[in-house]
Automatic annotation (TrEMBL), chain A:
GO cellular component, one term: Golgi apparatus
Source species, domain of life: Eukaryota
InterPro entries listed in its UniProt record: CDC50/LEM3_fam
Broad class of where this protein is predominantly found: membrane
Name assigned to this protein: ALA-interacting subunit
Protein family membership: Belongs to the CDC50/LEM3 family.
Localization annotation: Membrane
Residue intervals passing through the bilayer: 34-55, 291-313
Entry keywords, A to Z: Membrane, Transmembrane, Transmembrane helix
Pfam families tied to this protein: CDC50
Membrane recorded as keyword: yes
Organism: Hibiscus syriacus (Rose of Sharon)
Amino acid sequence: MTDPNRERYRIRETAFYLFTQQSLPACKPVLTPGWVITIFLFMGLIFIPVGLVTLRASHSVVEIVDRYDIECVPESSRIDKISYIQDDSIPKNCSRFMKVRKYMKAPINIYYQLDNYYQNHRRYVKSRSDKQLLHGRKYHDTSSCQPVELNNGQPIVPCGLIAWSLFNDSFTFIRERAELKVNRKNIAWKSDRDHKFGKNVHPFSFQNGTLIGGGKLYPKIPLSDQEDLIVWMRTSALPSFRKLYGRIEEDLDVDDVIVVNLMNNYNTYSFGGKKKLVLSTSSWLGGKNNFLGHACIIVGCSSLVLAIVFTLLHLKYRRPYGDTSYLPWNRKSLSG
Amino acid sequence: MAAATSRTRKGKIRWSKLYSFGCLRPSTSEEHPADRVGQLGFTRVIFCNEPYLHRKKPHKYPYNNISTTKYNVLTFLPRALFEQFRRVANFYFLLAAVFSLFSLAPFSRASLIVPLIFVVGISMIKEAIEDWHRFLQDLDVNNRTVKTRMSNGVFVDKPWKELRVGDVVKVNKDEYFPSDLLLLSSSYEDGVCYVETMNLDGETNLKIKRCLEASLCLNDDEEFSGFKATVRCEDPNPNLYTFVGTLEFENESYPLSPSQLLLRDSKLRNTDYIYGVVIFTGHDTKAVRNSTRSPSKRSRIERKMDHIIYILFSILVLVSLVSSIGSSLFLKHDMVDWWYLLLPDGSSLDDDDDLFFNPSKPVKSAVLQFIRALILYGYLIPISLYVSIEVVKVLQKMLIDKDIELYDDVTRKSVQARTSNLNEELGQVEMILSDKTGTLTSNQMEFRKCSIAGISYGGDITEVDLAASTRMNANLEPFEFSMDETNRATRSFELLDFSVSSFSAQNGNARLLKTEEPVIKGFNFRDDWLMNKNWIRGPNLSDITMFFRVMALCHTGIPIEDDNRKTDKLSYEAESPEEVSFLIASQEFGFQFFRRTQSLMVLKEFDPSSMEEVEREYKLLNLLEFSSSRKRMSVIVSNEDGRIFLLCKGADSIIFDRLADNGRTYEQATALHLSSYAEDGLRTLAFAYRELEAAEYERWNTTFTQAKATIGPEREELLEQASQMIEKDLILLGVVAVEDKLQKGVPECIDKLAQAGLKIWLLTGDKRETAVNIGFACSLLRQDMMQFHLSLSREAESNNEVKAMEEDILQQIQCSYKLLCEEGNNEAPYGLIIDGKALEIALRGNIKDEFLQLAVNCASVICCRVSPKQKALITRLVKQYTGRTTLAIGDGANDVGMIQEADIGVGISGMEGMQAVMASDFSLPQFRFLERLLIVHGHWCYQRISKMVLYFVYKNVAFGLTLFYYELYTSFSGEVLYNDWYMTMFNVMLTSLPVVALGVLEQDVSSDICLQFPALYQQGPRNVHFSWSRIIGWILNGVVTSLVIFLANIYILSPTALQRNGFVTDMNSLGAITYTCVIWTVNCQIAIITSHFTWIQHLSIWGSILLWYIFLLVYGALPPDLSGNAFQVLIGVIGPAPLYWMITMVVVVVSLLPYFVHITIQRSFYPMDDHVIQEMEKCLKKDDVRDNEMWVREQRNSQRSTSIGFSARVEAKVLSFSQQMQQKKLSIYRSVTNSPIYRSITRTPFS
């Protein structure tokens, strides 16, 4: 009664046959109490050390934060900060003092931090032209740059709201009367400098219009070298963000006092944004952030606790492995 | 030559002379509604033999081709598109795509349109392929050929599809009628032919059709040269049993009746050929008109899935509302101050028409933002859910089709899932409505047992007895009541012979196997006493001889000489397969019926006195035909000595009522045998005879002839009375039991299905006795079951008053239900048997509910004599009333309604008819495959699809909500955290393969274990895997996951540096990192769900994660024009940062932790069935002991609660055995203790 077809099929005991018969060799992990406890223990043992290491890295980072947006407005103008900032005739110089509490090893990153600044607003984010940044005026279509697109019929390079609102506070750092050398190179991603901002693209007709936004650019320097712009144009993800300004390439000792001479040009007063200056070293994990370390330790600890709780529960309410009394037919008979 | 002679001989018999009822019905006697011809609804005119007249109007009728396809080339695109966009989700995505053409959408056009085209395209391709298969099937039917008369007078093969109204066709034996034909003549002289209508109404007995006397002469090819006639008849309608028309032939008009109409899909049987004229073609035929277009069915899970989609839509609308309101609030209060946005102030309209952020029109902006948000959060709606499910189902279907265990060697067919929509529905079936003939039984009768003169022969032990006794072996010593082997009478009384238990199980199985393959078709009987002619030495010789004569003479069969026969054995043809089996049996016993002429029946008899074979002629005087109301059939014959006998066979109750006082010698013993035969599911008939005095016969014959000659409605009554007069004072000879051969594996299959908690209803067009027999044979009924019989009482039926009938049935139902409720706690199960007429009443408005309530509470329900329409109606009502998933299984066109109506329709493809298969969702070559299909594949598919859908929901919620959270940080401006193409890839590539692998290959337990623990199937009907609590749970899990991913990312990454060089994260890198976490999490989540890892799962899960990195690499390596903000994001920005990799690890672990804790708790303390069985399996694998005690015990335990099926019967049998044992022991003990010997022994001190 055997069918040749069937025989032929059977002979091909290949992977395909096993697949069609749904009998491929398979691993069928079953979550046994032993496994559960092992997994939790293992997680605890991994996460706590990792958390500690991370925390240590985070603690090794020294960070000095100084909010200057209010302090840098003269007492007299503090009632109407907006008109102060918008009045070009008033000099915007300001000096701040920063005390180094802990030894800071070079390079020390200088950030400016803006809070409550929605660089991620859709209208803002979209208002740029990547092609124009790369190809300059050769690329004509700047419609994506609305509303900062044209000036007197001429395309603005770089166009768009982002470039137009370029941050323009500037900082100089003086330690013991000597100016600290600030390296303003290499503050943007290499990929951006090399591939996204044109080497032959020069700002044209930038900030020449009726409405002037933020900073200006040097018309002679190609965009690929205007790293402030490149950094600025990497829009931040959240309304509170830091951007790299430069690096101090000298170590700072404890109790050093650094005088920061800054030009407080940028208007954050109209929308109540904060401006901060941040000096920070970095570790292999980046900046100072304890969250990850804490998270790791919490997860690790709770895993350990869970492991213990499960062990205790199993000792108390032990369900034998493969206990048949839990099967529905047995349960039914138990209940009635 | 032999064939030719047989044909001519057969041709000489005028059947009309033999039959007393029914057939010979003077056509003029009846009131014929032919006057209506020509009026409205009866306007059809057919010019016979002039088909060319039907090529143009007004008599243009369609060709004979049929089409069951859903689409054609032109309608495919619009209709298929319409079907696709009828789904809410697809329509939503269509809208989104349309919006993307304007600036409304937050994404690029391509990223919205590409997935939609992909998804819809795949679904449409699937539709097209399925329709193509349907088309091929139609083509197959349409290209069958039939001999058709061409204009030159020659009959040539012509494909069915080219047949036209008016064509004259010749249909040969065992061919299907290509369309509805008007019978002109047949190979029989009197123009009758036999038609098998099983495909239409499921009745297995052959129907006789007769042509008009006028057209009798047209029985040769040449006769048609000048044939011209006109038929005027009713318009096409679906009514199978009516036909009104007239035939105008040779200037005379003859009324036509349904008995001249041969319907499409029925088959010519026992007749060499017929000639006919095509009356209705193609879609006009009654069979096609009767079939409704198969409805598109959707599974329960899919319907529930819609609700889930609605929930997700509500979430979508909710978050969109939050977004739009938030946006307008920001716009009004804050955004105006954000000089860096250069918002239009409303005064200069032309400058900038950014309508989304127009502070002067906050409402309009809010509305636009709302629409944009609807599109933005579209990732909450799993766009690829439908397409993934479809892909998965097609693959599942392929695996079902390919399963070698579902391959039938005999028919060389395999199980076919004809639609892939219902795979998971197979796992939720609670009720099976089964047809009988061709589904459970193979429509083959086998002679199994007989009881002659009070002694039972061929009394093999049944499988139930065997199984019960082997089971009892465990705790019983072989307990033999060794009676004298020669004493047959006592042996046959000792039906429950305990010597059975001395067979070892192996021996028993071997025995059973042997008996399963009868040497002679239709004869499965083993008894040396009868077979080896030992009976001539026994008592009651004359009765035994007479018994065999009844068997050989009382029938309507005719012998057929095989052309290539080797022995002198004949084969027979008769109206019913039962009769054939009797004839074969009597031939085996030495009473060969070998010739029949008009009035003579010739037997080759074994003469016990001379010990040799003699040829005896019997003159056939009268034949009182079998009918379902009479339930008996008699012949009156005179033998060579001139003695006149009435030989009668019929249902036992009828015969027993008509016994003479001196004919009841064997009544008691026979009745005992009857009941045991019936319990085994055998169909029984009692044989009796009576000798008639010549004078008495003459007297009666005149009455009978008078009655026969009567014209008018009272004729039947007169005939009935006449036969009553003569069929009395019978002498009982014995009973025969034939087995309506069940298909292979049917009882076992039903047993397993019952253990799986399924209820099985039997719906059959056959008569009650047959249905009940089959109920016993396949263990749906058993002896200790309480049976409720619902049927119309005779008075109610005769009055024909609806009111009375309703009351009658209602009362019966209420009585039964009361009984059922009273003894509800009793272990004894109930069986309900209801016949078609009662059912018709019971299914009416007010009684319906009560009836269904009763029926649902019975362990098994058997409906007999139900019409195809009623089958469909029952199915619908059961479905509606109980809300349970029903599966209908059948093989013929009569089951089509039911198959279409049920949640799942299954067609048996083993037989020739294709109607049921065409209408079905699954086709099986054999009923027994249902077991594996449901318990293994159904269970798996249910689990797979539900896991898959839930995971899909989870995955999209987890992903979609991160988009929403980000909105909170962007002042609801509609900015998206991720690159457009990341998101497009999400559903299409990065998370789709593991889901498909899960949906296709996941197994909670292996197929063997599914079959060993059918109770596991109950997970489906109880819907444990797709309950609302689970759905909500998964949605919450998605919410938690999205929160963890998003918050952890922004808190870790902002605002400090990402890596040592002090660079900070921007939008692009945050997007890529968060997205990495999402991909890892959802893919690891599926790894936790999966319990069956083959290399495919591993590849798809870990491959998907890897694919994300590859994608990021490749996409990032494209020039910035193309890659946009993802340019070199992996190698240049996030890749070198250790923080990135650490975040991935921590976030994945934390976001999976809640679910993991949940399942550990569940597994450890509240395990589900599959969990425990998995553990047991694992345990046993270690020990490698399959027949471990615990294993077997659990298997047994899982079977316990069933009340129907083989095991339940065995269980019951064991119970009754042990009770009897107890009694016997007691009686023996008593008899022993009472015996004087015992007393003497006990008195004597032995010690």
